[in-house]
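Run NET domain-containing protein through structure prediction, thanks.
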Amino acid sequence: EFRSEKLPSNHGSGSYEDGIAPPSVKKQKTVTVSTIDAYEESHGHIDSDIFAQLTRDIRLIEESGKTRQEAAKMFSDGLLRKVRHFFQLAKMEQGVYDLLDTVASKCRSMTTPEKIELGRRIRKLPETALDHMVEVVKMRRPEILVSDKVSFSLGRLDDTTLWRLYYYVETALKAKQDRTVTPP
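Sure, done. The structure for NET domain-containing protein is below.
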């Protein structure tokens, strides 16, 4: 076991191993003792192969420590960029939803035949599109509880929500149709 200790005052210089003397002591000479020298002093001579291996191991540890720090910094910087990007996208998404609400609120009232047609078209949606449709309704009517089975009356929804649903259903059905059409 090796411990760093103050050199005895009879050592000649009156300095300390780390080269820093207390303020009350004048610094005359710096004494540096390497770990290998200290080990040899207390345990005897070290074989040159062992010394070379120890030196390589120490260098690898120092290098890998620096590499890990750099990798951690790069990872955290990349993660921070992604988080910033996510928040920017979330802000943009909210802006789009607000714009859609504004546009939909300016639309005329949906007629009963249009509501019936909307209901028919909703039944044609793929399951994944139904999930998003429920989210559209839930944004406008947070009191609706979402479970495995969701039902609501189109007649009870406000016109803004109905028109948002209408345009979403149109887009989803067009995307579904585009996926089913195969190129010649």
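Residues 107-180 form a domain with the Substrate Binding Domain Of Dnak; Chain:A; Domain 2 fold (CATH 1.20.1270.220).
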